[in-house]
Hints:
oxidoreductase; two-stranded antiparallel sheet; 12% strand; 14 helices; eight-stranded parallel β-sheet; 380 residues; alpha/beta; TIM Barrel; binds flavin mononucleotide; Alpha-hydroxy-acid oxidizing protein; binds 2-OXO-4-methylpentanoic acid; 2 domains
Amino acid sequence: MTSALSGLRERARKNLDPVHYDFFAGGAGEEVALAENERAFHALALLPRVLRGAAERDLRVTLPGARASLPVIVSPTAFHRLAHPDGELATARAVAAADTVLVTGVASTIAVGEVTAAARAVRDEASVWFQLYLHPEQDVTTALVRRAERAGCSALVVTVDSPVFGRRERDRRNGFHDLPPGLAAENMRDLPGAAPGKPLDIAMSPALSWDHLRRLRDVTALPVVLKGVLHPEDAALAVTEGVDALLVSNHGGRQLDAAPATVEALPAVVSAVAGRVPVLLDGGVRGGSDVAKALALGATAVGIGRPVLWGLAAEGAQGVRQVLELLRAEFDNVLALCGGRSPADLTRDLVVARATAATAAWGTSVGPQAVRAGEGSMPW
Ligand SMILES: Cc1cc2nc3c(=O)[nH]c(=O)nc-3n(C[C@H](O)[C@H](O)[C@H](O)COP(=O)(O)O)c2cc1C
Ligand SMILES: CC(C)CC(=O)C(=O)O
């Protein structure tokens, strides 16, 4: 993590109630997956190409229902008003100003219609996607989808890595179970089964199956991004089921602690999808070179979770904007250093396992590992 980003995190830590800091920062279990997401990026190196004439660079990418000015979008994170009084409104303004996609979540402390309005006040065509969990009762899911459609969201992000809630030790230790008075999951109000004036609980259900996803697709024409896929067989199934994109994610290490680092799971998913839909990744992206590594391994874009929360808690909308501009500048710099003009120039042969990077470049004994990576085998 660069000093600018860790500086924001430290300022966020100072501003936040320690219990809320732990909620944002923490993971499940022993926080192995949380740590692995970042470690796995460090374990990879980029093998740059030279003399490729990369004076003019274009960072834009096309995604379902959206275009983004850089291949970094904002993943859904809960309860932004714990980080800053303006909460998701501040996040929405900053993300729209940076001209990328905001994935606003069902666990937002501001209703989705107000979030999209704040984004559109900054940029007419601002892209906002809506993240939801499938509810076992179809009428609740449908009501959430209608809410997102009315708000003008251009895709649905369906999180499927949460059949049950991960065991978050920090939250248990801190006794953090409820939002402070005055804050609520605003999108959960006025849903079928909700008591008047009271938000419904966000359901996480182990009973969900592909049938529930089919029922969702029956009630909406919005593109669907499936979030939390790690197994290549699930990726292939999802494509067969007609999803419009996949987001490789382990929920920032907050669900299955034994899950692999996302950048390590990415190549097999990319291979299973075989170019049929875009594949995105989140988890542990902290700098421009992480973005470049994920793209070289086949991601169309990456999402960031905690860095946005650090920016928001440190400085509100300004802080979120700072995080996105930092990543834009770093990614552009790395792209140039790799001799690339656009994200498409970041190809798989540019990624090698760090332990073998030098020997791969020399073409000696370990070299073929990196060379074969370009042909579909794993470089680690
Ligand atoms: C505080 C917090 C809350 C989150 N809330 C949600 C959520 O409501 N829905 C969801 O799909 N993912 C949620 N996530 C996971 C993020 O969307 C994303 O997968 C993860 O944060 C990416 O990892 P990173 O924080 O290392 O960038 C949350 C993550 C954090 C840190
Ligand atoms: C409270 C949850 C709905 C959000 C969260 O913390 C998570 O998904 O990690």
